[in-house]
Request: fold
Amino acid sequence: MKNLLKTILLVTVLSFAFTTSNAQTGKMVFDNPSHSFGNVSDKGGSVTNRFIFTNQGDAPVTIQNVKASCGCTTPAWTKEPVAPGEQGFIDATYRPSGSGNFTKTLTVTNNGEPQTIMLTISGTVVSEPKVEETPAAGEPKAENVTDTQK
Reply:
């Protein structure tokens, strides 16, 4: 009887181990998980980088969510499952404000391995000097006039 119980237990453990080791999963592999925009003008509008990944697993991978570290970064991504060997994308659009260095992250949640991936964008927001309007040819240049000069 003991031998029968040991045999049943052994078969159960081996069956579980075999099933677990043969489970198919997707695997997101990014060409480059970080991107530097370099200098970004504070008056130039938003900038976008597309992160490309390849599913190097043996099952389709689906992006479940992408969360940006702040409201100045907006993500967009491949909505349909990405088959093994195929590519998908995650876009990170950054809206500059203020000036100085920035580093922002996107947390990618998916059904593959690893289930959570961090992507990073960075750069430096530079202030553009104000451009004075030049009067049209023949028009006098406006002067600062105080009330006492009128």
The chain has one helix and eight strands. Residues 33 and 69 are 15 Å apart (CA to CA). Strands lie at 28-30, 34-41, 47-55, 63-68, 73-77, 87-94, 100-110, 116-126.
